[in-house]
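Pilot study result, target chain (246 residues):
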Amino acid sequence: MLLAIHGLGSDSSAMRGYLAGAVPAGVQVLAPDLRAHGASPLIGEPDDFSLEALAGEVADELVRVGDGSPVSIVGVSLGAALATIIARSGRFPIDRVALVRPAFTPQPLPPNLAIFPLLGRLLGEHRQQRALDHLRASGAWRAIAHESPAHARAIEAQVTQPGAVERRIRLTEIPRNAAYVPGELRIAAPTVVLASPRDPVHPLHIAEAWRDELGCRMLVSPARDDGEEAMLRWFQQQLGSFLVGS
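Predicted structure:
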């Protein structure tokens, strides 16, 4: 069984880009939409957006559809933080864990995630187009755009996508979570961190901190701004190799 967990503001369809051609033959894939994402009808209250609550909902779905076989997990960004909680919960036998572009840290609301509550506030105060105008005028967005135009466009999509206003609580609450306690982030299964350069939302120094905490390998992809297709091919190749144990 392979559990694939998407990132904040994304949905399960994004995992296809990472996993195309990477999943071993015969492996069943569970790629759920997190609460207030994708096709999920759930929104809820602030407490529903703790990492533990979100991970618990994913784990409950895995119990419903799983067959008891060892589980491999691929988690992207927010999904990486949820993957560590599920892998360490003791609820499932874990085969291996790939943590892709981790963004969360031991501190709530680290600087790289501060753009998301800003998005949530703008969506609560303005219509979407006006919120986008205010976003583009902000220093936070300009700093991201200066480092990575591709990631700036991805941030803009958080404002313009359908349901963004109704689901803005996810942008406000999820970044307030700390991902782990230093010295306690251990996974008793083969683990790899896959990172990207020139990524202001998922900086290399955060991936390096995860690597050091986990005591595992870290590999670095081509930059998104040098070609998204090339970046995704790299992730597909690395995940394909990792998931078969090589």
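One observation from the pilot: DSSP finds ten helices and six strands in the chain. A full batch analysis is planned for the follow-on phase.
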